[in-house]
Write a structure and sequence with these properties.
The complex is a heterodimer of chains A (395) and B (82). Chain A has helices at 14-22, 61-67, 78-95, 117-132, 144-151, 167-171, 184-192, 198-202, 206-213, 215-224, 257-277, 310-323, 363-373; strands at 6-11, 31-34, 43-46, 72-75, 99-103, 106-110, 136-141, 159-161, 244-254, 280-291, 297-307, 329-341, 391-394. Chain A is α+β, with helices and mostly antiparallel strands. Chain A has 4 domains: 6-12 and 80-168, Reverse transcriptase/Diguanylate cyclase domain (Alpha-Beta Plaits, 2-Layer Sandwich); 14-77, 3-Layer(aba) Sandwich (MutS, DNA mismatch repair protein, domain I), CATH 3.40.1170; 175-223, Orthogonal Bundle (DNA polymerase, domain 1); 243-394, 2-Layer Sandwich (Dna Ligase, domain 1), CATH 3.30.1490. In chain A, strands 5-6-1-7-8 form a 5-stranded mixed β-sheet. A 5-stranded antiparallel β-sheet of chain A has the order 11-10-12-9-13, with helices on one face. Chain A has a 3-stranded mixed β-sheet with strand order 3-2-4, with helices on both faces. In chain A, helix 5 (144-151) links the parallel strand 7 and strand 8 (159-161). Chain A is globular. Chain B is mostly beta strands. Chain B has strands at 2-16, 19-27, 30-32, 36-45, 48-56, 61-68, 73-81. Chain B is globular, with a radius of gyration of 12 Å. The termini of chain B are close together. The chains are: A alpha+beta (395), B mainly beta (82). At the A-B interface, helix 3 and helix 11 of A face strand 2, strand 4 and strand 5 of B. Bound molecules: magnesium ion. Magnesium ion binds at residues 10-11, 14, 105-106 of chain A.
Chain lengths: 395, 82
Amino acid sequence: MTDRVILHVDADAFFASVEQITNPFLKGKPVVVCGLPLEHGVVTAASYEARPYGVKAGMPVAQARKLLPDGYFVPVNIPKYLFFSTRLLSIYLQMTPRVEAYSVDEVFLDLSGVADPWKQAVELKRQIAQETGLTVSIGIGPNKLIAKIASDLDKPDGLTMVLPEQALQVLGPLPVERCPGIGPKTAANLKALGIVTFSDLAQVPLAKLRWWFGKNGEKLYWAARGVDETPMVLLDQLPPLKSKGHEITFDQPMRSVEAAQAVIWEISGRLGFEFRSQQRLAGGIRLKVKPVGGKAVTRQTRLLAATADERVIAKTAFQLFRQGNFTELRGLGIYGIYLVSSVKDQNQLHLFPEDIPGEERLQTAIDHLKQKYGEGIVVPALNLLSSDFKGSGKG
Amino acid sequence: MIEEIGEDVKVLASFVNGKLQPVIFKWRNRTYQPLTIASSWSDYEGQFKRVYFSVLTDQSNLYELCFHTRNFQWCLVRIHHD
Ligand SMILES: [Mg+2]
């Protein structure tokens, strides 16, 4: 694992920047991307123009409005951000197949063995700006840890390279929170022990860190020295998502078949909609039933033809339900299994301006991002729950 | 200020180099042209692609148009008044 060259590419204020790109009037203005419902949600992202006012992700929208009465508050639009995320991934893949999609707006690129990584990074920034209008901050380092810390040193639109021999010097004065994986809680614990910076951390013997932090102690010990051998998780190494479903737990035991049928319809409707949105088809259905006072029971069946049709999902789930002799239930779940892509023609013409070359190849990565960030879609009202019990969604 | 509209509109579109582009749209008996495309993106509703365009007609209004491939219908989603 010697002579690795890793880039960490982080899109600047990603959600807010996408809003500014798709609406030129928002360019240069303080933009606050809000979770839904708009007035009761929390801030999802703030543009660089909004940040001096103290507006931050995670803060209630009402509070952000007080800090920034003249701000532009826009609702979060996850499908739109995923579109730009996919465009970025396709640009990275033109440079190297060794891409790890770390989050919706961050990737690691492995440029080991490439002659001039700095020049490549400059070219990458130019290409991203030209093709998408986005700016990114890039960190270059001998491993993922240093690359990620480096990209954070100069933002927005920055480029920072840390050579292996500079690592200790660069990390030394940084607060330990800059280390990915050290959250506020660990940082507070370290601070109580007098450890504030990376160099403080590097002074602590391994045995002591192990004593304090168990198996994480060793990670901290190496992180303090800028040592990280975490491998890249390439796009084609992502496991396919093979099943997806939802469970509902009831506040009160459910006793009637009609009520069960209503719940089955509710979950099936949601699943069918999600599968269609994600261009997936279920090749089978799994029903999970939790009887009162007993262990969960699952039953599953393969379908004759893969489907995203909620009527087929519901009918199949109900057949599975009737095969059991359930009397009192505390929960019920339905899963689509043997999931496949519904995109049949992989070589279709790219008719629309936003078609992304190689989008099919990115499908698994996109699915993972979707799973992580949610669809941002509105689920149609299919609530057939009878009023004798209320379910709490879990999914 | 952003105004949500969500109304069907008539659009005259062209294919330039194999790519769809709205050229003129008509909404509430008014014709809007020429259109400058500021940005475009897409998502899916079910298996059907929806293609969005944010277009400018002048310096003070931005219109977000959506083309739905399920029914080949255009919709004016929202207007941003500067
Ligand atoms: Mg970012």
